[in-house]
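Each field is set out as follows.
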Amino acid sequence: MSTTILIATDYSLESLNILKKVLKEKNNAEQDTKYKILMVSGYDMGDSIRDLLFNTKATVFNKIRAKEFCEAYAIIANKYSHLVDKIVCDIFTGSMQRAFNNYVKAENITEAYYSPSLKDMNTKGKFDLAPYIRKCKELPSFELVLETPKVMPEKGRLAEVFAEV
């Protein structure tokens, strides 16, 4: 059986703590389920015709997602390979609740997780998906409060992935 989970992210290493926490909980539940995980951030495409015509998801991801993020989520996916079917990074470019509801329905998302403590959510054209997630009636959503440890190995580096949450 496969289930789709949406995780609201800002594509920072800190946001991967949500993924780690969710997978740890699913691992402890010991269900025989594989998860398709959608790491999604809101992104404002702007009004420029040039941007709307020539920006692709790849160019947007080059602007908003660090290389370390990709390496880190690959490490987490390998650690929980018995749970993870695949991890997909995506952007939501809509501005209406109805558009988000249609996105949830089209992707067959069964649950969503978000954290109010992400710092980079409203930078580089990104916006927070938490209000959309909370207002979506047909989507069970869970708010995760993340505390970052006082002593972090190599803050902002790949070693941060190995710190316990």
About this structure: The domain at 2-162 is CATH 3.40.50.620 (Rossmann fold). The mean pLDDT is 86. DSSP finds six helices and six strands in the chain. Residues 16-29 form the longest helix (14 residues).
